[in-house]
Structure formats: C-alpha cells, structure tokens
Amino acid sequence: MTNRGASSSSAPFTKSWKYHVFLSFRGFDTRSNFTSHLYSNLRLQGINTFMDDDELRRGEEISNTLLTAIEDSKISVVVFSKNYASSKWCLDELVKILDCKESNQQLVIPVFYKVNPSDVRNHRGSFGNALANMDCNNVEKVNKWKEALSQAGKLAGFTLSDE
Q: Closest by alpha carbon to 60, among 132, 136, 133, 129?
C-alpha cells in the first residue's frame, strides 16, 4: 500500500469513529424485520451501530443529529427497499453517505432488499416511479438524488430476494 503523501489523505485513517456502522433504511419497509434483525446482530457482535429513531424525524429537513452520525461512522450500510426512493429523507441521507465515502473514505455497503441493483442504478421500477412522482421543485436536489442512486447502484453489495 502506498502513502499518497498529503496529510489530508491520511486523516480518515486516524479519525476517531463514534460508530462502527450507520444504518440507512426506509422505516416502514424494513424496520420491523430485516433492519431490526441486522441491528440486533451487529450489536450482539459488539459493533457500535447507529440506527435512527422515529423521534429524530420531526422536521422536513434531515437533522443535524443524523448528519453527524453519518459523518462519525466508519461504515454505512444502506438497505435499499421498494419504497426507499419515495423518502426525501432517505435520499438526503444517501447523498450525505456518498459525500462521506469520498471525503472520509467511509465504506458504503448496499443491501438490495427485494429490489434489483440495476433498478436502483438506472432509476427503474419503484425507484423511477418515486423520482417521477417526487414533489420537489428543486431540480438540483433531484439531480443529486439521481446521481447518488446511480453511484450506489454500482457498488458491490448484497442482494436479498424472496427466492
């Protein structure tokens, strides 16, 4: 492994992480099943995991608490489910997670829960429908969401299906 020389490039390796894992997911899709089981098992293994609470979602905008938790996590696990893209909150989280992937060299692991990675990547199926029906007049923001979905859909991860 080569050292790139710049002190800023080594900063992520010396960073003190508050959480090992940040879980991003669409609550009503997976909170009571897959995500809660994943969270419990990570915690049982001694992995400090941040899983948001419904109480954090009081406003329309993503909260500073959540932004800080994303920044303070070494790994983000993004659980893409059928309704993930219908949530502006989830899409804002995804943009922040991918920003941290670049700036902090955070590891991002996608889990495609009963969805096809190519639907995420190419905005098809429920992902395309959600974006097309999104009530957002901010074209720049919608373009960021689309780019984030495209990038995340290209990452190596896990695909879980009904079969």
A: 136
Mean pLDDT of 4-26: 69
Tokens of 54: 């419904």
> If you average pLDDT over every residue of the chain, what do you get?
86
Is 93 known to be catalytic?
yes
Of 93, 102, 140, 147, which one is the catalytic site residue?
93
Return the pLDDT at 161.
Answer: 84
Contact 97, 78 (CB under 8 A): yes
Select the CATH number that applies to the domain covering 15-160 from these four: 3.40.50.10140, 3.20.20.140, 3.60.10.10, 3.40.50.620. Answer: 3.40.50.10140
Q: b/e for 126-146, b at 16 or more Cβ within 10 A?
A: bbeebbeebeeeeeeeeebbb
- Give the residue ranges of DSSP H helices in the chain: 7-14, 27-30, 36-44, 64-71, 88-103, 117-122, 125-132, 139-153
Measure the CA–CA gap between 3 and 9, rounded to whole angstroms: 9
How confident is residue 150, by pLDDT bands cut at 50, 70 and 90? very high
Query: Residue 52 — φ and ψ, nearest 5°?
Result: -65, 160
